[in-house]
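This is your field. Pick holes in the following sequence-structure pair:
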Amino acid sequence: MTKVLILEDKWQSREVLVRMVEEIDAGAAVFAVANEDEAYAIAMKRSIDVFLVDIILHPERMGDQSGAVFACNIRNVEKYNFTPIIFISTLYDAKMCMFSTVQCYGFIEKPFNMDKTRRMIAAAMRYHTAEGQDKSFIFHSEGLIGSVPVKEIIYIESRHHRLYVHTTKDEITLPYRSCRKVLEEIDSQDFEMCNRGTIVNMAYIEKIDSPGRYMYLRGTEAILEIGTIMKKNFMQRFKNR
């Protein structure tokens, strides 16, 4: 799933860009925000594949170029060293500066040339940001904040209104939240729901008994069942690894 982050202060422009991205790829995940704080939070939590960034986010400030500052900071994050950044601007003179300091993918000038803009976004969306191997799953429990490396999680299950995270080292019990919410937070292609209440790290799958819909995992004696409805998609995902 391609993830696109749109940072644009004008809601009309955001809506146009969101529609354009969805026309290019209906399955893309689009995050559209108006300020850099929200954009930073999303970029740190997810692995964004394409950034669309308006250079001027606060027009009420004289000489504002906060979008450019955001882009410079994003470039300093290792996983985003080469991620395509497309700038949105009416400032023609800003181009040379941004190409040299941020190594941006391209510029979109306002008002939008729809065909040109669509072609540029479509080309950039072919890129996918590599997921870091040291990514952590952050959690809150009893007023404390903890984390566990994503690569150490074998599977996660929901039982009796609690969440149980089974890792290579121990089991962590957390307050309930939906499996789909947890998948969003983990943001890794290795994880998939195998039934309504269980998420598995496919990197730990040792073998699958397809007719019986059971799977065996490395690092645990647990045997997980694949849901009838989810079996087809799950097996396809597993085969594509």
Q: What stands out?
A: The longest strand covers residues 153-159. DSSP finds seven helices and 15 strands in the chain.
